[in-house]
Design goal:
With 282 residues, the chain is of the alpha/beta class. It contains eleven helices and eleven strands. It has helices at 8-16, 19-27, 43-59, 74-86, 105-111, 123-130, 140-151, 171-180, 195-200, 245-248, 262-280; strands spanning 3-4, 33-39, 62-68, 92-95, 160-164, 184-188, 204-207, 225-228, 232-233, 239-240, 254-255. A six-stranded parallel beta sheet has the order 1-11-8-7-5-6. It starts with a strand and ends with a helix. The structure holds NADP nicotinamide-adenine-dinucleotide phosphate (NAP). NADP nicotinamide-adenine-dinucleotide phosphate binds next to α11. NADP nicotinamide-adenine-dinucleotide phosphate (NAP) binds at residues 141, 164-167, 169-171, 188-192, 195, 208-211, 214, 229-232, 262-263, 266.
Amino acid sequence: MSEIYYGTPVARAIRASLEERIAALRGEGREPKLAILRCGDEPGALSYERSALRSCEQAGIRVESIVLPWTAGTAELLRQVDRVNGDQSIHGVLVLRPLPRQIDTQQIFRRLRADKDVDGITVPSLARVFVGRGSGFGPCTAEACLAMLDHYGVPLSGSRVAIIGRSLIVGRPLSMMLCARDATVTLCHSKTRDLPSICRESDILIAAAGCAGLVDERFVHPGQILLDVGVSESFDGKLCGDVAFEAVSPLVRAISPVPRGVGTVTTAILARHVVEAAEELP
Ligand code: NAP
């Protein structure tokens, strides 16, 4: 019987570790606060916002949601970025994606202050992950994967890790974080040849492709740890991951489910970043 790695205990432990730090900040008259910038009502963005609100509320962090219409232009969103950049009561900023097509995303990311970039979208934040220098924070989901593995006591040093997905918010930064922990990482993508056998050779398999049911029996072996980062909607409208859970879960040592897996931890990491930003900002 495989072990199920739920995200809830991991998220709870992260939030518990923030209690004293938040109390100390309040003692200095500083109330940690997150601003969320969203355009329109895209379901994925709404779901992330709900989860962020819940997590911050549980941690005792204030949140201001700023919502623009889906028709908003770059200048309108830049004005909001400037406002939150300059607002001393706001310590962290989360720009929800997707942004509408007419918005110049790179301009938005460039304008955001890196020391308020609590989800690792700015270049200085990514430099911090990739080069070890810079300001800002790593992407929350990539850090959530590490937090899951650490919480469940999975050794990383010397382990072979396969990651499916090379995006800048999950796969690529995660590969750097795992390298820094002395894992041997193979970063896979849509052009990777013979994906199942590469994945089957790993001790730890992390699926972040956004492709429902991609990982099946051919990708796994009995000693393996699986983290499922993917979030898709199945044909019957339920949330599901990249792993064909029913078929694969009996065949591996441990597996994280979707929902109630990595996603739960992502917003606890977000809360931690807001607290760290509040501690660092004058
Ligand atoms: P993305 O930017 O679309 O990147 C997907 C990556 O997966 C790409 O590198 C792509 O390869 C690769 N890929 C797609 N289909 C593949 C296939 N059949 N075989 C091999 N590789 C494949 O997506 P993302 O933003 O990284 O998100 C990935 C998934 O994680 C989504 O389901 C998203 O909803 C989920 N997510 C979850 C959380 C959370 O907290 N749980 C947070 C963020 C994202 P190419 O580069 O070759 O195109």
